Amino acid sequence: MNQRLSRRGFLKLGLGAAAGAAGAQLFFGGRAGMLSPVVSAQTEPITPRYYLAGTDGWASLPGVGNTYFYPDPWAPEGKTSYMFGFADVTQHLSDPELVSPNVLAYKEKAQISAPIMYFDELDPNNPNKEAYVVRLTNLGLAVRPDLVDSHTVHWHGFRNVIPMFDGEPGSSVAVPIGRVFDYAYYPYEPGTYMYHCHFEDTEHVHMGMVGLVFVRPMQNRGAGSLKASRVAPTIAGLYTPDPTGPMGYAYNDGDGSTAYDREYSMFLSEVWNESHWDDAHIQLPDWTDYKADFYLLNGRVYPDTLLPNYAPVGAPTGGVAGDLGEQPYGSLVTCNAGERVLLRFANLGFTQASMTLAGIRMLIVGMDAVMLRGKTGVSGFYETNTFQIGAGESTDAIFTAPAFSGGAGSSGQGYDTYLLYNRNIAGISNNGEMGIGGQMTEVRVYPAGSVPQQLTPHDL
Amino acid sequence: MKRRLLPAILAAMALLLASGAQRGTALAATEPTDPRNGVICETSPNGHFDLTATIGYALMSDGNAIHMWGYALGSYTDASVAADAYQYPGPILCVNQGDTLSITLHNLLPEATSLVFPGQDNVLVNGQPSQPQFAAGEMTSMAQVAGAASSWDIPGGTATYSFLASEPGTYIYESGTNAGVQVQMGMFGTIIVRPSAAGFAYNYTYNPNSRAANEGQVAYAYNREDSAFNPAHEHVEILSEIDPFMHQAYEADYINWIGGAAHNPQAFDMQDYVARYFLINGRSFPDTMADNNAPWLPNQPYGALVHIYPYDAATNPQPAMVRYVGAGTADFPFHPHGNDSLVIGRDGRALTDASGEDLSRYKFSLPVGPGQTWDVTFDWKDDNNYSASNPVPITVPQTANLTVGPYWSGSSYLGSAGNLPPGGEGYSQCGEYYHIAHNHALQQMTSWGGITLSGQATYTRIDPPLPNNCP
User: Fold this and answer.
1) ipTM score
2) Is A7 inside any structural domain?
3) Is the CB of residue B432 less than 8 Å from the CB of residue A17?
4) pLDDT digits (tens, 9 = 90+) for B441-453
5) Which pick of A67, A161, A187, B418 has the fewest CB atoms within 10 Å?
6) Which of B364, B379, B399 is best to mutate for the A interface (most A CBs within 10 A)?
């Protein structure tokens, strides 16, 4: 009843006609973006920190091409699998148009996995704090122009959020093709999170619209005898980096127990070939048949996980070199003996993973962006070499790199090698292939002082 | 062959029709006293309950009707009547710590059945210790049984199970006989044991006629101050799954059996088991959001909508209590949006260290495993107190430039409504917020045949603070 009245009111005010006209403009093109906003909350809009563009694309998942659904015969050379994802168009924020030709050029260029985002915790008591804004646009799907799905950004695990910024489309709003929406966040809880599109979530998550996001704690500003982080804050002037401080702290621990020298993203996702083929070829899978064929670590499968960030060429499929152009993140961990390394794990696959670091104990300091510590201060930290991480969970693990073995190291290349992998055996296969693949990478420990200080998380 | 089958099928249809005809009247009696949302506790002055093991039917949101086994509360001698009182999942039985819980199980199924109570000590069956049963050296049951029925109207045996409810918390009861089949067919339920130590006993005064009148009370999950919750917002979310082919096989077997054929306890090859429906409280989305005792779900009485008000230190300090029960075959990583859940107990014990120090912790994904129970408290507040006078720090696009969800009020602000596009569903009633809560193994948020958003999902409904004009 209430709703009918409000609709009538809507028409009375003539806004219906305005909306109709606005809708019509969709078809005239050229006016992509926000049309006459209802509310301009700020005289000076907040400049977004990140700008994401939802679209489709292709990934290289090297394996034996022996199934009907893999590799996709429509895939461009060097690619195997049809994906949806977020492209990072942050560099085009200052273009004159909201959705500029530069941004539109990312259609069919979705990044796998999605851009790693990170923020510094805000002080809830600071009246002048400014929200972090993540801008989202929707470029449509080049391979599926018939599929006019909207997109959203759901920051998975963000606490006490209002529906509008939660990105669950049933309870809030989503972004149609050619439109723009700004998500505003005031993060007060440090830790490792993940984000994904929640529109048609089973499909869009599985198709690749998934990524890691983390919040660095206020303690990075320094607290008492705890030194400030040696790396710059994401907000200019938030704190003065201390060159003798740690890279950062995982949490506001109060005692430095979560300090670390390096940090890496270990983002887990999966690919079920049939559903990816189906989406490209205008078919629908029965999701209850789900079974992953590839297990991805930061958007790549082993051995491509060993290649550095932004490496252009990966392992071959059917004799053709892999094109990693849209899979920018490596997973190789390099560190010096004695350093503390934070591994930020998050799992947006549908299967529980069992992550093993063979030969080095990990100290589990946080799960689901919460430090493992009881309300009265009892520590729940524990050491392990294998922990389970289910769908939608995150784990913060810190290991201390062991002493270097000497000489040319266990690898004969000047470093000691330790393997990090999913002990759920299917998780280290590429498309069921014998041997190893999937969610596996190496931790390479060098003699102290060999590897330069890490300047950015995940060496971005 | 045809002539022998026909009466069997007719009998099965008559049974279904009979149960259908009785559904309306049975409901009218229960509805007014049950809350619309939240736990429906079955209680008994002496801690005794009768459960009848029977067949029944459960309706999936795609329209499929699934043949089930499970429990009807009460004592029945005729499956055509018991099937009407059948409920999936089994009744939630609530007792106080220190009570002796006893259940007399009456069997109307074509095979023997029993009850087991993982998490309870010193369970007795007919006064004897509950023990695995053996015949010729092979285990036949995990506990003493109630024998099989001879036909749908010739009841089988009974057995009485009892134990001292010694520790507060959330527990499961389930079949211990042919358990791989019977549990999967629906033979499980929930037991809530209320704490009884001084100051922590359960004293909730429930007013069926006013939501507001039920507010402001306190209950405890454990004998601990930090397990306090608002008893008007207590919920049980039982996570389960169904393979329709398995249930179809046992339906065909049952029809044969009531026609006079022998029952086959292995009517389905469990090697072929693949779950296709994923349920909360026996319902699939969107039925999970419907009220308790929704009339179109006569045998699935439990809704799964968590219905709360925003946290407020002065007026609404106590969180909701949500008891998750894992009744499927895999971990269900359950993810309620909006805020973390504070895990305060697992499997009937508060999360503490050996000296009683609190080890509860916030989590955003709850991997509820088979046979596990997770006790969490949940509340929500707007960290930024957004309102029309403290607006969101972004430019809100016109509705025409957005895709609008059915539970969106049209406004960013709690308690406000705004314009919605013509033709939308517009389910929001009073500017309330909704946050989805779902299994994050997202294939389990779908159901058989590729229907998305029809599995283990529900919403948390957050009404504006009282007083409000919400219905």
Assistant:
1) 0.92
2) no
3) no
4) 999 999 999 999 9
5) A67
6) B364
